[in-house]
Amino acid sequence: MSTTLPFRKMNGLGNEIVVVDLRASNRVITHVEAAAIASQPRSHFDQLMVLHAPRTPGTEAFVRIYNTDGSESAACGNGTRCIGWLASQQTGRTEFKFETLAGVLPVTVTDIGHITVDMGTPRFKWNEIPLVEPFHDTRAIELQVGPIDAPLIHSPSVVNVGNPHAIFWVDRLDVVDLGRVGPMLEYHRLFPERANISLAVVESRTSVRLQVWERGAGLTRACGTAACAAAVSAARKNLTDRAVTVHLPGGPLHIEWTAADRILMTGPAEDEYAGDVVLP
Questions:
Q1: Alpha carbons 213 and 249: distance in angstroms, whole number
Q2: CA 20 to 30 Å from 10, out of 141, 209, 237, 269?
Q3: Is 82 a residue of the active site?
Q4: CA–CA separation, 193 and 128 (whole Å)
Q5: Active-site entry in 76, 185, 202, 234
Q6: pLDDT beyond 70 at 42
């Protein structure tokens, strides 16, 4: 017997988000069902945000996050901005907390163009990212694409911001075809949980330009956790200040790595339409 689930289609800087609210239900969407939802044109997503009843007092919901291929993600900055906007519209409040596999994420809604998510604390140790072997300095690990004596990209910074990220520092974003090398690097043996792969150009002390291959989703117009990962990694290498604008194909995000070791991400959300999806 088929099931009809209502959803909202949203986006954060073009990063396609679908929201399903199951807080009044015990249902859990399977990985196969998530991939099926993504395969339907009206409910296609980069990330699916499924709201479940809160597990922790003071939170709005426990959120399970799925990628296009049905795999789960621990955090999604663009999706969290979207559910923060929905919560503000439903309640009239501006302060919220959502729990994900990455922890409790506070959200502040100023308006639909300015929603701030506290993405938590970055993790830099090799076994926290995780990597399969030790690296003393994760600001630059041994990984390259191209000839050994003249690699096209090399020595990425790695960090976990809810998800594993590898950031390659380049002079221009077209130095390699990220759509071609992204899948290879996502599944590289160094990353036992796979990884998000980014190319980053540092334009100034306050500006970074980014292109992202997102784990489980592919090339994306925007990835909030990748923007956070690039910002903290650039500051850690003293390439930028601790507050930067990260420019993605879908638009800019403002990222601040605070003195208290928290990553604050500010950007917009867009509410597109409501619909229903039928699952077998």
A1: 12
A2: 209
A3: no
A4: 11
A5: 76
A6: yes
Residue 25, pLDDT score = 93
Give the mean model confidence (pLDDT) for residues 50-71: 97
Residue 147: which residues within 8 A CB-CB, separation 6 or more?
none
Q: How many domains does the chain have?
A: 2
Q: Are residues 109 and 149 in the same domain?
A: no
CB atoms within 10 A of CB 128: 14
SS3 88: helix
- CB distance 48 to 66 below 8 Å: yes
Q: How confident is the model at residue 279 (pLDDT cuts 50, 70, 90)?
A: confident
Q: Which domain holds residue 62?
A: 3-115
Provide the mean pLDDT of the chain: 96
Catalytic residue among 48, 161, 223, 265: 223
Indicate whether 60 belongs to any domain: yes
Q: Which helix (H) or strand (E) holds 89?
A: helix 77-91
Amino acid 3: pLDDT: 86
Q: Is residue 154 a contact partner of residue 145, using CB atoms and an 8 Å limit?
A: yes
